[in-house]
Amino acid sequence: MFDMMKMMGKVKEFQTRMKEVQEGLGKLKAYGESGAGMVKATVNGKKQLISVDIDPALMKAEDKMILQDLVVAAVNKAMEEADIMAKEEVRKNTEGLLPNIPGMDLGSLMG
């Protein structure tokens, strides 16, 4: 028989755990680079850009478009890595709390 009180307790525990996970995502760091490491980007698990490091050799006016493309590529790579890390954190921290419902992606709750 379905125990509604037990399920409500699980939902409450899940909500608490999700809040903790979201707070912890700000501490995760993901990195991306492009141009053979000449441009590096760091983002946190909340997909916020933390830093961009650009090799001084790219600081020429004639290289402006290349630099812009490299920055975009590095940031996108870091964002992809942050997304993977965030989903893994959610999975690890909510495992077993709610029943496995096909098609329900708890990682999508992160952003």
TrEMBL record:
The keyword DNA-binding applies. Keywords: Cytoplasm, DNA-binding. It comes from the Bacteria. It holds the Pfam family YbaB_DNA_bd. Binds to DNA and alters its conformation. May be involved in regulation of gene expression, nucleoid organization and DNA protection. Belongs to the YbaB/EbfC family. Homodimer. This is Nucleoid-associated protein JI741_16850. It comes from Chryseolinea lacunae.
